[in-house]
Amino acid sequence: MSAWGENPAYGHRAPNAGWVEVAPYTGKFTETDYMPGMQPAGFMPTLTSFFTLHFGSFGGPPVRWAYFFMGLAGAMLFYTGNLLWIESRRKKERKAGAVTQSRSTIVMGALTVGVTLGCVAGISLTIAAAKWLPGRVGDVAAWHSWIYYLTFLAAIGWAFARGAARAGWELLAFAGAMTLLIPITSLLAAAGLPGTGWSYRHTILVDVTALAGAAALFWMARIAYRRAESGPRDSVWGEAKARTVPQA
């Protein structure tokens, strides 16, 4: 049988704990490869340190918040990096005489906004749903998977149907609305809505962070809308109906 434990002086193989195999009748440890502070010398402690770095399960809340902001920075780097790459390619193609976006660039633009913002919207919606699903559905994990992937795939489909320019600001606004649902659910609990079996007091930091994230997404949606309206007409970020322009 397995027994789980935590030792803050050592790293863990899981986010918050390690485990040891125990003989059920004698209580003796039969395997300690994954137990903090009891691992045999050699490769196991080194491997555990990799898991500790992956989960950020060291240094307490400051390290976990640092991981959170580094994750946001990485996501923004991917999103903005793709935007800049596509736009630089447009300028390069224009110097060569092209005045229309290539199909590969159009597809890349749609995937950039669809995949990235679909992830944001899906994660936000499933976090909001986490406050309502327990006790109401049988398989909570399956519901979370369905909510996320349906939102994610719908965003990609929307990006291809609407084009990168329009879908860019529309999906930013949609992701902002889904993120805003997180603090809204806590407000409903604070208002005493029947059936809310969880305490909003334990999610205040999450709600404040989500509120700031929603505001940032709405602000980005406004900028993307202006870019679609007034940006270069041969850009994938300009309105699709005006993507083709005469040669100067």
TrEMBL record:
Keyword Transferase among UniProt keywords = no
Q: Which domain of life is it from?
A: Bacteria
Matching Pfam families: PepSY_TM
Q: What is the scientific name of the source organism? A: Sphingosinicella xenopeptidilytica
Write out the entry's keywords from A to Z. Membrane, Transmembrane, Transmembrane helix
Membrane spanning stretches: 65-85, 106-129, 141-160, 172-192, 204-225
UniProt-recorded name of the protein: PepSY domain-containing protein
Q: Does the keyword Phosphoprotein apply?
A: no
Q: Which InterPro entries match?
A: PepSY-ass_TM (IPR005625)
**PANTHER family attached here?**
IRON-REGULATED INNER MEMBRANE PROTEIN, IRON-REGULATED INNER MEMBRANE PROTEIN-RELATED
